[in-house]
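job 3f2a | input accepted
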Amino acid sequence: MDTKYWIAFSSIESIDSLFVQRLYNYFGDIETAFKAEYKDLKQIEGLSVKKAENFIEKRKGLDVDRVYEEVEKRNISILTFDSPNYPYMLSQISNPPMVLYYKGDLFSCNLKRTVAFVGSRRASFNGKEGVKKIIDELRGTDICIVSGLAEGIDSTAHKSAIENNLKTIGVIASGLDYTYPSGNKHLYEEIENGYGAVVTEYYPTFEPLKFRFPQRNRIVTGLSYGTVVGEAALKSGALISANLTLEQGRELMCIPGAINNSNTEGVYKLLKDGAGLVTSGQDVLNTLNWEIITEKSEISTEDPVEKIIFGIIGVEPKGFDELQIQTNLDTDKLLTVLTMMEVKGLIKQIEGDRYIKA
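job 3f2a | predicted structure (358 res):
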């Protein structure tokens, strides 16, 4: 079984995917590559002698069956580079991960309609609201939102996808034994239990070390047809993702923000350099040349007030105050109607006092 040799390679922390890719391309078979002698490795053009020696040394004490069983007992799904199901867009980048470990249902996501959202961990309120607005406007499509499960823009993107019943893929910078940041534990669980998949290239026991986050970014952008930058300082991981997007030949888009916010300096630099400006979900569709017919919401109620409220709650969420102004209902009456509509499954309340169609 070839899979265990892919896993064995990935369990060695000191070798990277490019090293494995070179061996696989040279030998044409992952088992042969794993068992290769040093004299054979020296024949591979451009292969680091030091890395080859390190691999030979690390391989000595490695139990191939045991490392595979460690993954199996954790109920982690595995996708290897030679699999016919390996995501096409990811296979096209210069340094694709040789193994993808994941929890959830990766193939419930439409991998032909993937958009990445990246940005600052310390995003401003306006930055997060901008991301929410765009994803809210993609409601009813089969678009999949890809991000890195970090705080700030990442978490906002995943949560907004879930609120709008969109699939989402979270790419993490550690093995699946870790939840980082720990405050996102519930978000991990939601994604794994029906809203998409949590994905990583790292063996389950690998820690979320600092250098792994930039490496993770190439997978976020590599899985996606385009990347939307929410907020980014001039020196930030989001700018790394922006550059990766361009290197990978994908569409780069930016959400403009307040010019006096240091977290938008990187965004405006990207815009000046030619990135697409997006302020709506339709802008994203236009940039990617996607013609998508959204599902029309149907209402099963004869109550005239409920019909009016359902009509007011369009693509964007509506707040209680806005609904009250437009319906002219007193507070008690409006609360009663909204509660009944939630019970009937017509609408649902999201953060604060905002409502969206269910």
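job 3f2a | The chain has a mean pLDDT of 92.
job 3f2a | closed
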